[in-house]
User: Fold DUF1330 domain-containing protein from Wenyingzhuangia fucanilytica.
Amino acid sequence: MEKYLEATTNSGKQFYQNFKDRGEIVMLNLLKFKEIADYTDLKHLRPKQEISGEEAYQLYLDTTKSQFLKAGSEIVYYGKGKDFLIGPETEKWDAILLVKHQSVLKFMEFAQSEDYLKNAGHRTAALEDSRLLPSSEIKF
Assistant:
């Protein structure tokens, strides 16, 4: 099974084009953690003791929270997951994260900021696989 941890150039371009004028966006994150976080290429972030992927992801959230708030973003929900009620039985996700961003530009500003990038390696160390689905509200 193919793993997805980073946006591609094409998916980033499509994201910008599809959501640039829609205002607020909510990102659905599906997360699968590594059993043991892998800091092989991230020695500057490596904790003193070995930690789980879930613990590394918590470090990511803790160290980027101020950047979220500075960008006007908000964690709407963070919770544990596992099996789909409707969906493939072979896909299992450890956690679900919903993050609301004011706009695509605010999200991109946040994701490219030096303060964010210096701690984003905790996410890389933590995740085995992920999905990130941007959405905009449908008014009805």
